[in-house]
Amino acid sequence: MDTKEDQRAIRCLVAKVGLDGHDRGAHVISRAFRDAGFEVIYSGLHRAPEEIVQAAVQEDVDVLGISILSGAHDALVPEIIDGLKQYDAFEDTLILVGGIIPDDDERDLKELGVTQVFGPGASMEEMIEFVRENAPERDPSV
User: Fold this and answer.
1) Domains of the chain
2) Which pTM does this prediction carry?
């Protein structure tokens, strides 16, 4: 029987991709995820898609949360997904997008492999519960 001590903390990368300079939401989410017991890595601002992919692969994250408010989600998120696929990291990573995403674009992102899009008004509790229920299970000894 697994105990809480036997379980590996869910590892999350909160990423700011492109020229988007608004990072308050990313900081709030990072703090909430840490408070929930997740291990959180924050990318910092103005990261290229390849930098996000490299960080996700090197840190062996379970969850990649992409925060984007610049409107470039339709170009940048597919680049990240393609990069994760090149490193065989796509199948093992829960991909979330946060920001102001039009409904049509949300559908397109989900077709590409984004698991969930959280827009304005999504509660921290909703996001935390979603991650707990959907993050890939990993061997705690790894």
Assistant:
1) 8-134 (3.40.50.280)
2) 0.91
